[in-house]
Specification:
Helix content is 40%, strand content 14%. It is of the alpha/beta class and 255 residues long. Strands 3-4-2-5-1-6-7 form a 7-stranded mixed β-sheet, with helices on both faces. Helix 1 crosses helix 12 (239-253) and helix 6 (109-115) runs parallel beside helix 7. The site of magnesium ion has 4 residues, from helix 1. It comes from Selenomonas caprae.
């Protein structure tokens, strides 16, 4: 039975997609069966796996708005050459945020769909959009835990309180068992005093939930998506590949 981890932070550009794409690939490299769920209309997790977003016949959108139970999630999930299956997204998904508002059980659509394939995987990684709307609620309702990437910058903790409130809300209403999986510091630059201060501040708030592994800012990590490859395949010997393998190890060891 898969552990379902939502990668969430409503701030954009903090490394959610980079972490989803690369953590998924590294878990798979450690012989885990992994499904990566792209829950962002930008579809960057999908293109990060070399999936041509414009050529998709069906996406997560069709799964979520399927009122009649006609869409088979297995037919939408795509195998990839990186040993990770992907439930892809494209800009169609932007419509779901609006279309689901009036739908029955609108917050638990993803959970219901993932329940059908859950026992086929060890991990399901959900890349959330940069908002706390219905798509993120669907992700949190479906998840066992939330992994929060926090960027090492001055306003790092801004918005995190709001995310914690949302998690509490989801616990009270949709998913009583939702946990905080961990906090990963991203785009770390060891040369700056600021990065150190931010890490200290985040450790103060989240204590042992913060992973020992910190993701440094590296050019290779930012280049890999344009080649449609996780870092482990784009540049196996890079620092980025090394740290995401270490993060995968920590995630597995936390059980
Ligand atoms: P989010 O999904 O939270 O919006 P992304 O993962 O898309 O964030 O990252 C935002 C931008 O920063 C992207 O252009 C990405 O390539 C780049 N980026 C993310 N992590 C790193 C890193 N560790 N080093 C360098 N660039 C990074
Ligand atoms: Mg993203």
């Amino acid at each position: 039975m898969a552990k379902i981890i939502a990668i969430a932070n409503q701030k954009g550009g903090v490394g959610k997609t980079t972490t989803s794409v690369n953590l998924a690939a590294c878990l798979a490299a450690k012989k885990k069966k992994v499904l990566l769920v792209d829950c962002d209309p930008q579809g960057n997790a999908s293109s990060g796996y070399g999936i041509d977003k414009s050529a998709l016949e069906q996406t997560i959108y069709d799964v979520l708005i399927d009122n009649a139970g006609e869409v088979d999630i297995r037919e939408v999930i795509q195998p990839t050459e990186f040993k990770v299956d992907v439930l892809p997204a494209n800009i169609d998904l932007a419509g779901a945020e609006v279309e689901l508002v009036a739908a029955i059980s609108r917050e638990t659509r993803l959970k219901k769909a993932l329940d059908k394939v859950r026992d086929e995987y060890d991990y399901v990684i959900i890349d959330c959009p940069p908002s706390l709307g219905l798509l993120t609620l669907n992700s949190l309702a479906a998840a066992d835990s939330v992994l929060m990437p926090i960027q090492c910058e001055f306003y790092a903790l801004e918005g995190v309180a709001q995310l914690m409130k949302t998690i509490e809300l989801v616990r009270n209403n949709l998913n009583a068992d939702l946990n905080v999986e961990g906090v990963v510091m991203t785009m770390y630059d060891s040369r700056t005093k600021l990065a150190e201060q931010v890490v200290a501040e985040v450790r103060d708030s989240f204590e042992s939930a913060v992973y020992k592994t910190m993701i440094p800012r590296t050019v290779r990590l930012s280049e890999a998506p344009s080649f449609g490859q996780p870092i482990l395949y784009y540049d196996k010997k890079s620092k980025g590949a090394d740290v995401y393998m270490k993060l995968a190890k920590e995630v597995i060891s936390r059980g």
